[in-house]
Amino acid sequence: MPDGRSGSGRYSHAMARRGSYAKGIAKREEILAVALERVATQGFRRTSIRDIAAAVGLTQAGLLHYFDSKDELWVAVLRRRDDADRAAQWDAPDLASLLAAVVRHNAEVPGLVQLFVNLSAAAATDPEHPAHGYFRERYESSRARMTADFQAMQADGRLRSDLEPEELASALLAVADGLQIQWLYDPTRDMAEHVELVTRLAMAEVTART
User: Phi, psi (5° rounding) for residue 40?
Assistant: First the structure.
């Protein structure tokens, strides 16, 4: 039975919905860009949802229409930071060196380090926290990539053969993330230098033989 709408009417309605969806995606991207910039430059604790909302022309309630909660927004900011790090053309011969380069870059954006440390502490102790899945996924994927990289380094003689690649990957991630807490207390500590120290120790036997 005809629905009483012309074909052009249905087309216009579909176009309007697609246009509304596209505007929603664009606004969400704008919110993320502003939130990332604010956290990076003025710090996590000094960045409020109200300030971000005002910067993009929304109320707090309007902003949270695009995210389930403020913690969901912070998780999305971390994911955006990760995307930017992956897209960067880091000058690193392997993943261990890449991790050091990322850590060195993090020292330039202390607000994002604050955000990471705060969310990771909350998410680690509460499986229901919005960030729990993000950190679990992040550690699993990072550990898998680094393990594969270390196995390749062992195969071509660049890494000690008596080390377990997955254990080394876990240890290096622990060093990198743990140093961020120390660095927040004392910004004079060189996080990247300590990450590179672990890598040098792992390669020490190879270096001594060459």
Answer: -65, -40
CA 118 to chain centre: 13
pLDDT for res 85? 82
CB 104 within 8 A of CB 192: yes
Which ranges of the chain would DSSP assign to H, the alpha helix? Answer: 7-42, 49-55, 60-63, 70-87, 95-106, 110-125, 132-155, 165-185, 191-202, 204-209
Six token digits for residue 206: 């190879």
Three-class SS state of 101: helix
For the chain, which domains are there? 1-66 (1.10.10.60), 69-209 (1.10.357)
Q: What is the pLDDT of residues 105-151, one digit of tens each?
A: 889 999 999 999 999 999 988 999 999 999 999 999 999 999 998 99
175 in Cβ contact with 195 (< 8 Å) = yes
Q: Residue count of the chain, please give it.
A: 210
In this structure, how many other beta carbons lie within 10 angstroms of the beta carbon of residue 42? 12
Residue at 83: amino acid letter = D
